[in-house]
Queue: 4 jobs
Job 1
Amino acid sequence: MLFSISTSLLLGSIAGYGYLKSNGVTNDAEKIQRIFANAGWVKKEKGEIKTIRLRRRRKIENGMEYVYQLPLGFDRKEIDTDLLVDGLNTKKIAFDLTKVKFNKDILKQIKQLKGVKANKQVELDFDGMLKIRVYENDLGKFEWSDDLLKGGWKVPVGNTKQGKTIYHDFDKRKHLIVAGATGFGKSVAMKMMITSLIMNKPDNVTFSLIDLKGGPAFARFKKAKQVIEFGTDNKEALQIINDVQERMNEDYKKIVDGGYEDVIEAGITKRHFIIVDEAADLADEKEALRILTDIVRKGRGAGYYVIYATQYPTAEAIPMQIKRNIPARLCYVVDSSTASTVVLDGAGAESLPEIPGRGIYKNVKQIILQTPFMSNEQIKERIMPYEEEKNELSSPTPTEDRKHALITEKA
């Protein structure tokens, strides 16, 4: 009886301490203050050291937010997020009590229980005060669910650490740049977006798909009735872009002549998406880039939206005229701060963990998120109802009236 009570009290104490430690309620603020001091993140003025001062804290979803006042003249860019993450992720008490056997060796078993490293993540924000958000757990893998569909022209781009799903609404933001090193989610994200748009608007959406890696990313959509053009090299890309521009100009003229500002005001329900994967291969095709820039500039009013993607984000791959007209960006891991700056106009994507689907979405502010993963099997299941028999696709050939650019020829 005494043994039972003693072990219960002991295990209860251990569990309680482990709970407090795992929920970061004991000393995260002290750790942050210590990290500031050890890293030299202080302002020295006339021999006096002015420290960063904690003003308030509050509980947030999956963590805590600490708000600090910075000394006048302190450069907040000195604060290194990685140092904060390393400092906060020291070993903590975390016990798996299912492995403890209630016998005379229980104390020995408890002594052998080992702490594990925490998995806290940190976000920094500044609005006059420095806000440090400490999340207890990193973003996990985000599996696709049809519940993510919200209708309209919205597609999910990812889940935040707070558990909120972020959407890109093409009728509001029109175009999107997608970038990231190979294998970290760029093509998966675009396939998910195509599938989502077809599921949302099967009778009102059409696509011109240009896959300059040879076609593997978009080939599974070739039979979908919504795909009216498909190209895999620069010559085909130029023809497709040229045909799209002509149709766009005709539609845009009708909208303007009708006295409307755009397709939304005109009540037009159709939208056309031009999706280019590996746009870096168009860098030397000046005419194609000129036409594509015109589509990006005028397409927003005519209902022609562009998703411009590359795994090699350079100034040549994403020209300034394209960037100026596409403020919305989705960037996965890249290999340098220079590449991150090309996409996001600032560093950050180079420091993302090497987790497929982990990215930064920039609309007005930058948001770190995990993009939902939709498998090829899930895509096939959702696209199959919209497939139709087509001739083997080769290069697009314009019709005489150029109203429908896709006349297929057998290879």
Job 2
Amino acid sequence: MSAEPGPLEAALRGRRSQGGKALVPYLTGGLGDWQAGLAAAADAGADAIEVGIPFSDPVMDGPVIQRANDRALAGGITPLAVLDALGRLDIGVPLAVMTYYNIAFRFGLERFASVLAEQGVAAAILPDLPLEEAGPWTEAADAAGVETVLLAAPTASDERLGRICARTRGFVYGVGLLGVTGERDELASSAVVMAGRLKQVTDVPVLVGVGVGTPEQAQEVCRVADGAVVGSAVVRRMLGDGGPAAVGDLIGQFRRALD
């Protein structure tokens, strides 16, 4: 492991060292005025932002993010267009792209990693790439200086969680429940359990996502976790009439709850 954490991990460790909790929203690239949405989220207090590169078969995602993917793709967005736009943005917080392995594979792993680095993207999350098969990608990412965020599922053994945490960079993404992304009426008990299990095996920032849809749920999981990832609740506002202003308002609510 490199001695110095990358910009994403440094930002999250910085929030934690000040006694705070990290907030990482997710927005779909190419959806509406998405670049203004990213800026609004950063201005409202996001510590970092995940940007989805739309894919036709987002297996981890529920109906809201699937709809966002479909709308963005129908509007003609491409992976390169998302990355080119990110390279021109300067919103003051680290950016991570979240997409599926097929896109990285089709690019060529070295090329994908180098394009991310060239466009100033700090990290990548490839949720359908299991630890056992991640070697070629993580080597390419490490060489380019891109942090690879790995997911940890509630079904993983403690031994496997330890291996995931040893290989992840930026943060470890604790999956809050079994199922796809989406808002739930209440936080799954598995989310807090997941955070606790990860905190026992790593010093890397532990963030929990999937099923964290309200400021109260984020507050609840962050009693144990170092931070929360919020996706569907944010994307739903971009799909609606509120757009970037509604995103900024929502992120502000989360920020106040976590502070």
Job 3
Amino acid sequence: MESLHFGAGNIGRGVIGKLLSDSGFNVIFVDINQFLIDAINYHKKYNVRLVSEYQDKIECVKNVSAIHIDNPNIIKIIANVTIITTAVGFNILDKIAIIIAKGLIYKMDTGSNKPLNIISCENKFLASSYLKKVVLSYLPIQYHGYLKKYIGFVDCSIDSIIPSIYSKEKDMLLLIIENFQEWIVNSKQFKGDIPNIKDMKLKNNIISYIERKLFTLNTGHAIAAYLGLIQGYETIQSAIQDHHIYKLVKNAMRESGEVLIKKYNFNKNDHFSYINHVLSRFKNPFLLDPLKRIARNPVQKLDKEERLFKPALGAIKYNFSYSYLIKGIAAALYYRNENDLESIQIGIMIKKYGIKKSILTISRLDNYADFISDIIAEYNVLLS
């Protein structure tokens, strides 16, 4: 069995590639980094170091190879594999869609009726459904029926913390990751037989799991990063050890949690236990996760459909408290990093147009006057 994975970075090698390899697949990575590609092809394997407070072990990932994204052979590979996965960053999916569309045209034209399932493992809501929409836009209409019958686009939620692509050890392919991985997929979107992949959980209510992860882990992660950077911390572990930051992050996650509990009828005790579990993962002393990595791309994170605004808007809808979520939003607007172009963009926008117009533009909100006023008040506290 062969699989094709776009993106040989943290999640790609550390979680998806490992699980596919452990499940008996030959994994072909697609990437733009020729140095990384050459290293994978030379060794044909790499090590993953799984760490937690109670465990530290190394596992070897075998049956791997890699190919450059510009290699024309990708088209034929797409036509022959049974599963394609991506972990490239949501903004790159449009470029990937062009390649996938070409591969599907070749697959259809050569008369292959073998089902193919595509799982986009991006940190975004229903990324596979989005990818399907873009792929369809590149396919001539006569191929749409074939895609509908034989090509599955499977939405998922994937969760694991991997601080950096390369370790500081001599083995440049080694990844250090937390000993926790969660990969939940929509069981209803597969075409043909569902592949037997280790630790992949099949659910039919995938949206609730996607939002549970996005608006718990990612919400808390982002708020801890922005608040921590303001206080001069460098890693998530050091920031979350600050009692004041810990309290703010936990309360923001609980505010978001109240929304999720109401929306999806989650068990309250179970969800608050999930929050505590996520916070304990932030404290993992073996994962020196840089706050600047977590905080990057604040424009994306401040969209109304994203991890900061959406749970707060949900709280407004249900008439719940959102005071701690607002502190996180204000901190994201305040964040500046000369190496993060989006943070610089926010600063320029605020200086030119003022904080109110900037919030409306970045978030794409057009209402919620009291909510915007509350954000501005918190932002001004940070300025003082």
Job 4
Amino acid sequence: MMSEVTAAVWAGRQVAAVRDDPAGRMALMERCYHGPFGRAPRHLPFRRAAMAFMRWQLRRGVLQPVFAERPGSPWWRAVNERILRDGCEAVGLSGGLAGPASSLTADRWLSFADRPTARAWYRAHNGSVVAAYLGHRDLAEAENETERFFMNVVLCRVLYAHALVAAPRIALGRLRVLAPLLGDPRVEMTGIFLQLSRVLPDEYPLHDTVRSHLDREIGFGRLLDFGVIAPRLQQLYAWSARELEAPGLLDCVREGSPVYAWPFADRHVWRPPDSFAVRLIHRVLPPERGTSYR
């Protein structure tokens, strides 16, 4: 690192070097968790969730360059790049490169580097994710219907995992004592929420209809999405907008239905199926009304 180069410029160069190299992107993400000097033992456990998310993107092929035989997704590439750039900038700042942080999201990664906690990691990671979602809505609109549907599912999942740690009453109501453990990015259990291979196939682009995917979704994923998360969506997005200082996130939900690059008129896809198990979850874990954001 050269002292006359700012952390933001240095980060931009690191990302540019791997822009068309999916494996290089993953290696860069890995290096971020080792810190500026190659040893950051308190940070390494948090890479579990981040690398699971990255591996899923690689398997789907969404990070492939646009000139590849099977091009990747411009939207997914942009989202991934935002996370990488913010993380790299924080590494540069931690290593002594000039600042200040170029964005609120990069500053959040620096806060995580200074004090690595589960809540700090989610504020950094999800802050970058949400900023990328809001900044690249035009790219999202260019994707097909099924891809746009699952963009919303992914966003719901990452916001919910954050709430498990930082707003357990919103996330699990009467079972809130279990929430921080379930959402901790350092433990295997978090894969239930962030390993998206449980939600959709490892292929890009998706060709089947939204309905065909919903008809195939069974088991825990169906109960989680429709039984636990869906009834809390409006409250979850409102809390996340405050937690991440991202008011634009409120434009991604309407009357409890996700509307990121998705028409409100087609909100029927978010209605829970007529299932005894889903109805039971609604009865056992109803969303708590009028609670504080904790």
